[in-house]
Amino acid sequence: MQLVRDVRSRITLPIALKLGPFFTSLPHIAKRFVEAGANGLVLFNRFYQPDFDLEELEVIPNLELSTPHELRLPLRWIAILYGRIAADFALTSGVHTAQDVLKAMMAGANVAMMTSTLLQNGTGRLMHIINDLQEWMETHEYESIRQMRGSMSQRAVADPAAYERANYMKALNSFDQYVR
Predict the structure, then answer these.
(1) pLDDT value of residue 92
(2) Does domain 2-154 have CATH number 3.10.20.310?
């Protein structure tokens, strides 16, 4: 916290912190960072983890790009924090399609970061994503991203408990159909 306070005391530019998902109480630490002077939070930092080569007994640097299934964790936390913490949110990890961008915005993100898909598919992919966004928005009668922002956050949905741990049993019960 002190580092954020020190930086805030010396600059007027916005400060965004890229957080990892491994805090005991993410809402608490997010609130404290904002109180210390952070303007935005980026959820989540992906820590690059090395692998071991068992034959050569060496540590191998290993970069794995995000996959679409990684979207769920930052999506959930932004949807929970949106409207409760006075910060802008950037969602990173798992954003590969226009649908992923839409989900990020509806959760409450201001920004959806999509480095992995651009590295995999080139920057030309952006035009496809923008076109898909515009088409979806026209079909669903949205005039702006701002209009949809936070519309699927915990505070905006009919069943806010869907974001909570209490919903764990419902999720497990929905998995029953695959176990038979």
Answers:
(1) 93
(2) no
